[in-house]
Amino acid sequence: MSRIHLDSPWFKAVSFFLFFFAFYLAGAGLGIYTSRDSLPASANANASWGLSFQEEGSAPTGNASSQELKNYHTAYLDDTQEKVIYLTFDCGYENGNMPAILDALKKHQAVGTFFVVGNFLETSPDLVRRMTQEGHIIGNHTYHHPDMSQISTVESFQKELSEVEKLYHEITGKDMSRFYRPPQGKYSTANLEMASKLGYKTFFWSLAYVDWMTDQQPSKEEAFDKLLSRIHPGAVVLLHSTSSTNAQILDELLTRWEEMGYHFAPLSDLADKL
């Protein structure tokens, strides 16, 4: 049998190939490990708000902790065992569903917080006046609904909020509550700090479901499956006012939550704890 010479060109070529193949496998394995076991995004980086539900009836885990968020006057739930629910609605535009939502809230004497954008204020001033007259809270969802995590200057950030404040004051003659919700849940530490320095308190959510696609609305059963099983003490509920399903089920949904022992509180109660 012929012997392989360690200094032969063939041996060097094979060794070179095996070395880089092993290096590739090690790198791929490391990548899989990092992806699988990486920590959730924290408030120290650009992120999109997300939740992990562990147990039915219990509060979910956010991708930043309550304590971490509280440093920026921000919350996604009320850390309590009291069966209290904070009802919030994101309002991008009006498509006929808001009156039924307001009727249901009035019937249950529940105060909602409506996070509005510029388009909603400009096209639906009568509804804005009704919300205010019926004691609801109007929050700031920015004028243009951009990805605010990409805005790096205080001036640009403030402009998105101040234009909404101005419109609201023109419509109602009142100052807007300094409650802010980042569009699409996209945020960064810088954003949260900017909002706080402008006097705003930022609110994410601890319960929501896919209700914003107007041409693919969930059925009543699908909505109840998510909203009843995942409700928990101290929940900040996010619903979209454009959802026809929400308009149809809200009265019954509030009734069923009440039957489960829950009551509704204004978001200002949670804001006082930040």
Beta-strand portion reads 5-15%
Q: Mean pLDDT across all residues, rounded? A: 87
Number of beta strands: 12
What is the radius of gyration computed over CA atoms, rounded to a whole number of angstroms?
25 Å
Q: Uncertain runs with pLDDT below 50, 5 residues or more?
A: 1-44
Reading the helices and strands in chain order gives HEEEHEEHEHHEHEEHEHEHEH
CATH superfamily of the largest domain: Glycoside hydrolase/deacetylase
Biggest beta-sheet profile: 5 strands, parallel
Structural class: alpha/beta
What fraction, in percent, of the residue positions are helical? 40-55%
Count of the separate structural domains: 2
Shape by Cα distribution: globular
CATH topology assignment of the largest domain: TIM Barrel
Which CATH C-level class of the largest domain is it?
Alpha Beta
Instruction: Give the number of helices.
Output: 10
Distance between the termini: 81 Å
Short summary:
This protein has 274 residues and is of the alpha/beta class.
Structure description:
- By secondary structure, this protein is an alpha/beta fold.
- The chain has helices at residues 9-37, 66-70, 98-107, 118-123, 125-133, 154-172, 189-197, 220-229, 244-259, 267-271, and strands at residues 47-48, 51-52, 61-62, 74-75, 84-91, 112-116, 137-140, 179-180, 186-187, 201-203, 235-240, 263-264.
- The chain folds into two domains: 1-34; 64-271, TIM Barrel.
- It is built from ten helices and twelve strands.
- A hairpin with an 8-residue loop joins strand 2 (51-52) and strand 3.
- Helix 3 (98-107) packs parallel to helix 9 and helix 8 (220-229) packs across helix 9 (244-259).
- The chain starts with 8 loop residues before the first helix and ends with a helix.
